[in-house]
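Q: For a teaching session next week I want to show students how multiple molecules come together into a single three-dimensional assembly. I've collected the sequence lines for a complex. Could you give me the predicted structure tokens for the whole thing so I can convert them for display?
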Amino acid sequence: MKIIVDAFGGDNAPLEIMKGAEIAVRELGYEMILVGNQEVIEKVAAENSISLDGMEVVHADDVITMEDAPTSIMKSKKESSMAKGLRLLKEGKGDAFVSAGNSGALAVGATLIVRRIQGVKRCAFAPVIPKDKGYFMLMDSGANVECRPEMLRQFGVMGSIYMKNVMTVHNPRVGLANIGVEPTKGTELYQEAYKLLKASNLNFVGNVEAREIPLDGADVIVADGFTGNIIIKFYEGMAKALFGKFKEVLMKNAKTKIAAMMIKPELKALKKQSDYKEYGGAPLIGISKPVFKAHGSADAKTFKNAVRLAGEYVKRNVVELITSEIKSEKDSEEEDN
Amino acid sequence: MKIIVDAFGGDNAPLEIMKGAEIAVRELGYEMILVGNQEVIEKVAAENSISLDGMEVVHADDVITMEDAPTSIMKSKKESSMAKGLRLLKEGKGDAFVSAGNSGALAVGATLIVRRIQGVKRCAFAPVIPKDKGYFMLMDSGANVECRPEMLRQFGVMGSIYMKNVMTVHNPRVGLANIGVEPTKGTELYQEAYKLLKASNLNFVGNVEAREIPLDGADVIVADGFTGNIIIKFYEGMAKALFGKFKEVLMKNAKTKIAAMMIKPELKALKKQSDYKEYGGAPLIGISKPVFKAHGSADAKTFKNAVRLAGEYVKRNVVELITSEIKSEKDSEEEDN
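A: Of course. Below is the structure for the complete assembly, covering every listed component.
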């Protein structure tokens, strides 16, 4: 397994990215290609005693920042570490590409450099998020602000394949995020997507009200990228707000402070478990090779988790499974006509 | 103050509604008009020792259920307690109307029977929700699935008046729920609404990412009804999921169970404080008389809180303030032309 890494993507690059890559080499036995300014990488490695064993460095002059326009990856920033990493993936120099950098640029670059799977209308960021029991996949969480019904149907197909093969969920339940359970709820986009999902051979459980999403509404939650992004960010904010409130309660007086000490390890574990960022990264599902987005604020351990997930995505042949599913749908559609 | 109450709206009607009305009479000194089946009301009152002092009963034959189509209020269900209550409000028989029944029917009935304030494009459900410090108003939380930019601007205007006058927030910050802070983020609806809000004389703080909404993003969060409904229901689900997880942690072993006992009152208070339903109800802002929606699952205390809020809405002259603001906007627009 060889993973190509954008060493200069994310808030904590390159140090935490390099540390994460080092852990991945050591713990997972993967080989890595670090893409980025070679001089800086070597300097940071030396200063922080990071071993570059098992890693190859491929020099890139430039960096895409969070402020750069997504399309800059094809123009002014085509010599960036992200663009170069995607080209290496395209050329088959590694099995997967992982970046903690600018999401918009990553979606544009993956689509235009690596290309989508044939027949896939749009690729989507699909993070796996803790729910009451286990995890759900949210798709799309922000790559496509405007969607058409057929895109939402495909999100369901691709998410289902991921949850089944990577997360080993038996017969994943696919639900459509909506404002009520009736098929007539929501905008025209959602009403039409409901019909398409209903007619598919997915285990479609219908509309899922947002209240049920963090409980156990479905294993795959389908949404347009605007709604999905609202959901994932609200999840993050709510977790932060509520843990903050809990902390206030626990620090209230001498008695509660004693109680706090008694449950400290359990509470810490829960906080971690409720933090979807801990889980690592989100695949950009629909691209013809594995591309993963690590959270922008990823530290070494989170980044290593993203690398691990990317490895699973490769091992479980998710790209091949989606390719063949989309192709067989198309074939049977043509037979019908 | 005389409040008209839909005695047969909501999951716990009529018992909890009647109990709530009784508390409102006793604690707030309001007069009430209970609308619904007179025989049943009198029977329930007798069986549960509910005093009908300070209450007038107005008979209505029929009830709108949660399954009825919103438009039924104007047709097959025009003799329902909700329809009749709205007509009493229209005729000036009371100062405000409160119902825990079918939201869609309430929005349609309020719009077509009581009518919107002149110049207001759409009315909106606008619950007040606990955030990290204080409360924010979410507008729209579900009355309008499809919106135009001008509607979102008006939501900002009306929400700002409410937060200033009823919640006594000085110079309320108005934010647009969005997927990023830049003015170019989101769908065309959000990009256009941003421009209109920016050009208004509101204290507009720009786009607010969903992550910041439960923290302290703004005092008024403007959204279309689809997005707003996703936000409020996700809020409810996340609170439920996280409190459930906390409970699991606290019940884990003998040590954590002791800690749990030590923080039980504080935790209970926090749970209540995080439950937006406790707060009572949501005004249907934009209607020419005060119409309040109590949560469908409202118990006596929650319903009483909704009645109290409706009373505040009347006392603070919210309808008059919105009417004059919308009129002055229109006048200055005509001057400009």
